[in-house]
Design goal:
The protein has helices spanning 7-22, 26-36, 40-43, 62-66, 73-94, 96-120, 136-149, 163-185, 195-216. The chain is mainly alpha-helical. The two termini are 26 Å apart.
């Protein structure tokens, strides 16, 4: 079986790895996280704590820039392996343009969810001044789309709930449960996990899976 081609997936992986390599210099990494990381406080319009920083990425662009910053080599490799495994499959179905659109929209959905969780002080949410970095929110959207596009078994209805609704609802509940479990375990292992970013990105991927599929083949 030939592994599917995925030029956009490959480009995202290469860019992420290249940035991670450049930011191996600790001082560069620290500056990049402050300048381009996702800080919930900045999304609320409060950048007063950053007054002494020479350059800051505009707050509304930080959901994208933060998706290209990682906490180390292990972090970026884990994320890129996941993207390679499933991204090419989704890209094959939708084409590169729609795949990239999903990736970017999922990054923003992840950021919005993380901001809301921090603002409401939900369990296991970030502090308003804590940076969220990594591609996992955007990749969660790809995972959500993949699970709907390539189901491992025939979706079933839940009583009066049709299969078309029951399947994404079931996936959402499982994903929330998995991330809540990681949120409990992560701190004990010294790992900070932005679980609300994962949940927001995943739900966006589920929401866009079928509409983007219909758009892709609208003239078929």
């Amino acid at each position: 079986m030939q592994f599917p081609r995925g030029p956009v997936t490959n480009a995202l992986v290469i860019i992420n790895l290249a940035i991670a390599a450049i930011l191996l210099v600790p001082s560069l990494w620290q500056y990049a996280v402050v300048a381009g990381g996702l800080f919930p406080a900045r999304l609320s319009g409060d950048s007063s704590a950053f007054a002494d920083i020479t350059f800051l990425v505009p707050a509304l662009l930080t959901p994208l820039t933060a998706a290209f910053l990682h906490g180390g080599i292990a972090h970026v490799i884990m994320n890129m392996l996941m993207l390679l495994l499933i991204g090419k499959m989704v890209e094959r179905v939708w084409g590169g343009g729609l795949f990239l659109a999903l990736y970017m929209v999922s990054a923003y959905a992840a950021a919005a969810t993380e901001w809301l969780a921090a603002y409401l002080q939900l369990p296991m949410s970030l502090d308003m001044m804590a940076p969220a970095i990594g591609a996992s929110g955007a990749i969660s959207g790809v995972i959500g789309a993949y699970l709907l596009l390539f189901p491992n078994k025939q979706p079933k209805r839940w009583g009066p709930v049709p299969a078309s609704i029951a399947r994404p609802l079931h996936l959402t509940l499982v994903w929330i449960g998995l991330n809540l479990a990681m949120g409990f375990v992560g701190p004990g292992l010294g790992i900070g996990i932005a679980i609300w970013s994962h949940i927001g990105g995943f739900v966006m991927g589920l929401a866009l899976a079928r509409p983007l599929l219909l758009w892709r083949y609208r003239n078929a």
